[in-house]
Specification:
Blueprint (H helix, E strand, L loop, with lengths): L2 H39 L7 H17 L2 H7 L3 H14 L1
């Protein structure tokens, strides 16, 4: 097995290991987002449950796909990673 295949296997395994607990926590937050906000910040913040769900969904997807930006920077593709980041910032 060459180094690229080995690194790919390690990163796939790491992403899978991190995705399971992250997904379980996301499900809990989806089911009880209003209650969590009330418990942590007070009842005045329960109306922000939909924002919390969007943020948790984005974080869960980010965890599930791994760290492509870091991998690109470490493998000599930092210019492509930078351009993707700039484009994402302009679009957002």
């Amino acid at each position: 097995m060459n180094d690229n295949a080995r690194v790919e296997k390690i990163l796939q395994t790491a992403a899978a290991i991190m995705a399971l607990p992250s997904t379980l926590i996301a499900i809990i937050v989806f089911l009880a987002s209003g209650e969590i906000l009330a418990m942590v910040f007070g009842p005045a913040y329960t109306s922000g449950w939909n924002v919390l769900i969007v943020l948790v969904a984005g974080h869960t997807i980010n965890v599930a796909v791994g760290s492509p930006g870091v991998l690109m920077a470490m493998s000599g593709h930092q210019t492509a990673a930078m351009l993707i980041g700039i484009c994402a910032g302009v679009i957002a």
